[in-house]
Amino acid sequence: MNKILLTLAVVCAMATVHAPAQTQPSASAAAPPPPGSWEQWVQNAKNPLDWFSWGGDMRVRNEYFDNAITLDERAKRHEQDSIRFRGRIWASAAPVTNLNINARLTAEPREFMKPAFCSTHANDSGMEWRYGVFDALNIKWTEAFDQPLTLTAGRQDVMFGEPLNWWLVADGTPFDGSWTMYFDSLRATYEAKEVQTKLDLVYIYQSAFPDDWIPTLGQSSKNFAPGLGRKPYYVTEQDEQGVILYASNKSLKNTQLDGYFIYKKDNRVHTDILPNGDNANIYTIGGKVSGAPAEHWLYSAEGAYQFGNKQDPTVAAAYVVSPSAWRDISAFGVNANLTYEFKDTLKNRASLAFEYLSGDDPNTRGTDEMFDVLWGRWPRFSELYIYSYVNENSGKIAQLNNIMRIGPTWGFTPVRNTTFSATYNALFAPESVPTRRSGAAVGEFSNDGHFRGHFLQTVLKHQFSKHVSGHLWGECLWERDFYTQHDLMTFVRAELMFTF
Fold it and tell me: 240 and 265 in contact (C-beta within 8 Å)?
């Protein structure tokens, strides 16, 4: 079944290669017509008052993956198949000039066609209704104190870096997947336009459970069912605090320089139901340079070094002085991309990506060399591979580390409102031994190989109208000598998004 679905995804995507090229509008093309009666009604309905607006969307996803969690096609529940229904409604009110009150309410029930691997619906199929949550609830003050200063307080989204390539700050709620990405935080943004510099200062206080600060609609942290092997709903494995200082400067021609300091404090809580949380003080210093040095060319290069200390009970006893020991952190990461834009009628685009995240050296018992992606636990380059990390990193989804990847991506626009991309990455493990591997997965790693495997991804997207879009997404990874088994991991997703 998985091989059939993956083949269909790749074939459908590749079929667009033979589609006719999109036509380009002439210089004398007439201006677009005014909105039709339906669009005008939508605009009026969404903005009934000068100081109030609202909207909503519904995302329907059918996701299938195989071997990503078990790493072995013979294991129980190696196939997962679910439909995710995420609905959101949002509103913004501006009671006075430069002051906005923003709210967004969302829920994502999931229908499991096969027994679920997730701990909140373990071993069951059928509908998991979950709960409703405010993933945005904040006050935003622009031009504060008559300065180029914006202050935002409350639950909000916070991302730093290139759109869809946010490296270390993007998702404060990694356990619920792409359902929510919020941070409970205070943010101040100052724009010094005379020197083309933007400064951000962010304070984060993130709780492990979604209802610690703001009540949820329906049970979330109180649905603990130990007899059924289920855990309560949580959004991260420990309580977390942090401070981010981020600066961006564009004073150099065609160049952007970024520099940042991030402090993240982890506080292990509720050890009976969240045994894989940790205590940590992580300090990260990093920088990034990006730009367009010549016509057609784009690049970005980012690097970061981490220090501090961490007490992680999930590290195997053979690699620490004692299970309760604090270890000094010494880790680093690099993330770079080079792109060539053809600027032709098909909008062809080719790029080369390189990333390196250090892994924990099993021979240094008092030092932890594992790079921590902080709040970057989201499917940045792969929807499939983030699940495999539950086996080598104490059950934590998308806690990427000990990885080097390199490979090209090609994308183009075969017809209007349609895009296609294909990516290949060779994946390696700098350290052959995953020191935080889960007990049940110990035998899934060879402990003497460095090649994780060949990764392939194809994505076909189409915008049907202003209010409807969709995509077909396929990924696979051929496991190599880093793993004991050399099975095929697969992922297929079909999505429709309806926006009002």
Answer: yes
- Owner of token pair 């949380």: 277
Residues contacting residue 171 through CB under 8 Å, at least 6 positions apart:
181, 375, 376, 377, 378
> What residues have CB less than 8 Å from 157, skipping those under 6 apart?
136, 181, 182, 183
Measured between alpha carbons, how far apart are the two ends of the chain, in Å? 35
- Rounded Cα–Cα distance for residues 78 and 66 (Å): 6
- Residue 141 to residue 94: CA distance in whole angstroms: 10
Give the integer Cα–Cα distance in Å for 57 and 42: 13
Q: What is the rounded average pLDDT of the residues 87-115?
A: 96
Phi, psi of 440 (to 5 degrees): -70, -20
Spatial CB neighbours of 367, under 8 Å, sequence gap ≥ 6: 327, 328, 329, 330, 361
pTM: 0.90
Q: Has residue 223 got a pLDDT over 80?
A: no
Cross-strand pairs, 243: 203, 263
pLDDT, average across residues 115-143: 92
pLDDT, averaged across the chain? 91
How many CB atoms within 10 Å of residue 342? 12
pLDDT recorded at residue 16: 37
* Residues in the chain, overall count: 500
The dihedrals phi and psi of 429, each to the nearest 5 degrees, come to -120, 110
Six-digit token string for 224 = 């603990």
The closest alpha carbon to 357, from 327, 377, 387, 340, belongs to 377
Pairing of strands 99-107, 110-112: unpaired
Q: What is d(CA 218, CA 130) in angstroms, rounded to the nearest whole number?
A: 7
Instruction: Give the per-residue SS3 of the chain.
Output: CHHHHHHHHHHHHHHHHHCCCCCCCCCCCCCCCCCCHHHHHHHHHHCCECCEEEEEEEEEEEEEEECCCCCCCCCCCCEEEEEEEEEEEEEEEEEECCEEEEEEEEECCEEECCCECCCCCECCCEEECCCEEEEEEEEEECCHHHCCEEEEEEEECCCCCCCCCCCCECCCCHHHCCCCCCEEEEEEEEEEHHHCEEEEEEEEEECCCCCCCCCCECCCCCCCEHHHCECCCCCCCCEEEEEEEEEEECCCCCEEEEEEEEEEEEECCCCCCCCCCCEEEEEEEEEEEEECCCCCEEEEEEEEEEEEEEECCCCCHHHCCCCCCCEEEEEEEEEEEEEEECCCCCCCEEEEEEEEECCCCCCCCCEECCCCCCECCCCCCCCCHHHHHHHHECCCCCCCCCEEEEEEEEEECCCCCEEEEEEEEEEECCCCCCCECCHHHHHHECCCCCEEEEEEEEEEEEECCCCEEEEEEEEEEEECCCECCCCEEEEEEEEEEEEC
Q: Which amino acid is at 459?
A: V
Mean pLDDT of 109-130: 89
